[in-house]
Amino acid sequence: MEQSKKAHGHNHHHDEAPREKVDAIQAGDDDGEHAHDAPLSNKKYLAELKELHVELVRLQQWVLHAGLKVCILFEGRDGAGKGGTIKAITERVSPRVFRVVALAAPTERQKSQMYLQRYIPHLPAAGEVVIFDRSWYNRAGVERVMGFCTEKQLRGFLSATPLVEQAIIQSGVILLKYWLEVSPEEQSRRLEARIDDGRKVWKLSPMDVKSYTKWDDYSRARDEMFQATDLPSAPWFVVPSNDKRRARLNMIKHMLSQIPYEKVPSEKVKLPKRKVPGDYVGPKLPLKIVPQVY
């Protein structure tokens, strides 16, 4: 297991550097290999994203052709860009193949179930890619930090989850786990931008506001979650996301490299000749036309 952690760049020995330094490196805000001086231009971003969208369509065709089962988990800081990354992945593929799951708070009945039980029905069948926008790891993050679970429940989750994930993988599911990391300064900027933007205000929940003061608590929770659930067969991949555009491109590129797929052979589509109009006459009833305002 130690070998896997080194291979994927996870540093669980935080005594070697202050937590702020570790967070900055993971966010891509350090002078290391993941740091960039200038943001990626929109033109460059759109060009690269277009190429990746073509590959995602090829992946979709292969998933259907070969009956693959793919499950992708997105976790990370509030404001780290999970929603935007998921949108970038799914905007050019079929929602019948790429299915996004974002569960609401559990009902009273669900609270009495085995914790992972309500997630199991959403796992992919053959020919599906399921993307969890937040997942069962809520227990190791927000539930732990905000006091929604007991210490006993947390310990049970951290010990049981590797076994459950191993069973998921053994059933034929390709399981990928991504953590999006953002620096404290960039998180503050993004959360503040949501307050006065009518398009984004829905993203700022009361829970986000309460969580804002608990940066170190979330760092400790993340570290322990990685320590317990970073497995050789299901490692955590950290996506530095201070630059949203780079984060999306890097994440999609990496995801494609983790799923074996090929181009499905197909004939080039050619539109047939349209029939010459016959004696059809349009409807006589008055139609309600949308006003041409713009």
UniProtKB/TrEMBL annotation:
Domain Polyphosphate kinase-2-related: 40-264
Region (Disordered): 1-20
InterPro entries: P-loop_NTPase, Polyphosphate_phosphotransfera, PPK2-related, PPK2_PA0141
Name this polypeptide is given: ADP/GDP-polyphosphate phosphotransferase
Subunit-level organization: Homotetramer.
Family: Belongs to the polyphosphate kinase 2 (PPK2) family. Class I subfamily.
Record's keyword annotation contains Lyase: no
Domain of life: Bacteria
Record keywords: Kinase, Transferase
